[in-house]
TrEMBL record:
The chain crosses the membrane at residues 7-30. The lineage of its organism: Eukaryota, Metazoa, Chordata, Craniata, Vertebrata. The keyword Thylakoid does not apply. One of its GO terms (molecular function) is oxidoreductase activity, acting on paired donors, with incorporation or reduction of molecular oxygen, reduced flavin or flavoprotein as one donor, and incorporation of one atom of oxygen. Heme binds at residue 445. Its cofactor is heme. It is found in: Endoplasmic reticulum membrane; Microsome membrane. This is Cytochrome P450 2K1-like. GO terms for cellular component: endoplasmic reticulum membrane.
Length: 502
């Protein structure tokens, strides 16, 4: 029913359109759904609909985790006409993404991302272009970002701006979304453009807010339907809106690139864009004709870094603050440790080692928040035999991170917030193999080190200066942990009080 409702809400139905849909689905499903005995098992697909009636498109990861209980850790599901092999549980996901990294390391580029990126950039690209952009982004991230004192200072500076905004609310309830998103966007801005923006800058606000809305829309049921039947796009309001937003976002980036180009000094790169422009120039001068270093690839790679690096980190941080308000006794222990070890000074990355409890809490926030539950879609690069099953080249593969982060065989209390998952008896921090929020293998998140540094510094500094509580009259129990599903899992709309600590 949910599926039919969604379709009717979003598509202006005409007889011709419905006939076209039916014809397409009939042809497509009969050419794609033939199954052989070696295929991973799964529910029998219905003609046209595949297994859609079994799936809640508003939270597909929940349906898929349930199906894995019945069909095992490798199974097939048909999203309408699209066949997907789903991998569940730590052992299976690791086996595919790490031990058979090459075979499972391609990206399945869904129609919506093909529309956005045309196979360019990093996140939704494959082949030599992907390799070149990923390698270049990683080295720029290393030069201007992660692991470097420079970026640590940038994050510490940004924390001060964020704290100022929190202070202005004087302990009264407010929604943390915008200030947190502005702060984490400024870290990517510093790395990409070489500068930060004022939170009040209307252009900056527009860019961040649009990127945020896009992430929500991308996870909507209607866009999943679009991915199954892309020819419906022009009739879908959400698709049109997304395309407009992406175009306007890219125009803004182009304006910023133009300004940087005018003031470019090849001997002094200010950030990722400068480095790209300098590299592009040197390739042109060498007379090489075919190169991945062209303007379109720059614009798409920059949008990728913003899209992948802002919402993810911001959402995780907001889950962290909300969980602290919900579990005040855990917040007490974090603050006790911070006060004892830092004695009032600013935190630096090195402090992570001497703050094992705080570190464990941040890891547990990431585990429970599970913000990319279905991972990004992968695709097999060749025919693969996996756990006794045959998976054809070009098959879409979803390695469910949700099933790893809550794997009953790996975690003592998979569904509850329990920082002890990351502590030994002596209270020392312990790494856990099944901690995989950044995925693993060939496509592992290239922003992992930066994100981890941001989460540690922002979280520690905010907890050092503020006590987080639910609004007056609301108890911790009433803070609802049911996520709102978008492309990432977000906390439901809520307000918190940030009470200044003396
Ligand atoms: C808490 C923060 C973050 C989380 C949980 C996260 C998680 C992920 C996940 C699950 C993937 C998909 C990996 C796969 O396909 O197997 C990914 C990919 C990616 N992430 Fe992150 N990420 C975070 C922060 C960042 C940051 C800060 C950046 C940028 C500076 C970034 C840039 C990227 C890029 C470019 C990709 C695509 C990699 C590729 O396709 O080769 N991420 N991330």
């Amino acid at each position: 029913m949910a599926l039919v409702e969604t379709l009717l809400m979003h598509v202006s139905s005409t007889g011709a359109l419905l006939a076209a849909v039916l014809l397409f689905l009939v042809v497509y499903i009969f050419s794609n759904s033939s199954s052989s005995p070696e295929d991973p098992p799964g529910p029998k697909p219905l003609p046209l609909l595949g297994n859609l009636l079994l799936l809640d498109l508003r939270q597909p990861h929940v349906s898929l985790c349930k199906l894995s209980k019945k069909y095992g850790s490798v199974f097939t599901v048909h999203f309408g006409p699209k066949k997907v092999v789903v991998l569940a549980g730590y052992k299976t996901v690791k086996q595919a993404l790490v031990n058979q990294a090459e075979e499972f390391g391609e990206r399945d580029i869904t129609p919506i991302f093909q529309d956005f990126n045309h196979g360019l950039g990093i996140v939704f690209a494959n082949g030599d272009g992907w390799k070149a952009m990923r390698r270049f982004a990683l080295s720029a991230l290393r030069d201007f970002g992660m692991g470097k004192k420079l970026s640590e200072e940038k994050i510490v500076d940004e924390t001060r701006y964020l704290r100022e905004v929190f202070e202005k609310f004087q302990g009264k309830p407010f929604d943390t979304t915008q200030p947190v998103n502005y702060a984490v966007s400024n870290i990517i801005s510093a790395i990409v453009y070489g500068k930060r923006f004022e939170y009040e800058d209307p252009k900056f606000q527009d860019m961040v807010d649009k990127a945020n809305k896009n992430i929500r829309m991308l996870g909507s049921a209607v866009i999943q339907i679009y991915n199954m039947c892309p020819f419906l796009g022009p009739w879908m309001k959400t698709w049109r809106l997304l395309m407009e937003n992406v175009e306007s976002f890219r125009r803004e980036i182009k304006e910023l690139v133009n300004v940087l180009q005018e003031t470019l000094n090849p001997l002094d790169s200010r950030g990722f864009i400068d480095s790209f422009l300098i590299h592009k120039q040197s390739i042109q001068e060498s007379g090489e004709k075919e190169s991945h270093f062209h303007e379109q690839n720059l614009l798409i790679t920059v949008s990728n870094l913003f899209a992948a690096g802002t919402d993810t980190t911001g959402t995780t941080l907001r889950w962290g603050l909300m969980l602290m308000a919900k579990y005040p006794h855990i917040q007490d222990q974090v603050q006790e440790e911070i006060d004892q070890v830092l004695a009032g000074r600013e935190p630096v990355s090195e402090d992570r080692k001497s703050l094992p409890y705080t570190n464990a809490v941040i890891h547990e926030v990431q585990r429970l928040a599970n913000i990319v539950p279905m991972n990004l879609p992968h695709m097999t690069s060749c025919d693969v035999t996996f756990n006794g099953y045959f998976i054809k080249k070009g098959t879409s593969v979803w390695a469910l991170l949700a099933s790893v982060l809550r794997d009953e065989n790996e975690w003592e209390t998979p569904d509850s917030f329990n920082p002890s998952h990351f502590l030994n008896k002596q209270g020392h921090f312990v790494k856990r193999d099944a901690f995989m929020p950044f995925s693993a293998g060939r496509r592992v998140c290239p922003g992992e080190s930066l994100a981890r540094m941001e989460l540690f510094l922002f979280f520690t500094s905010l907890l050092q200066h503020f006590r987080f509580t639910p609004p007056p009259g609301v108890s911790g129990d009433e803070l609802d942990l049911t996520p709102v599903v978008g492309f990432t899992l977000n906390p439901a709309l809520h307000k918190l009080c940030a009470v200044k600590r003396s």
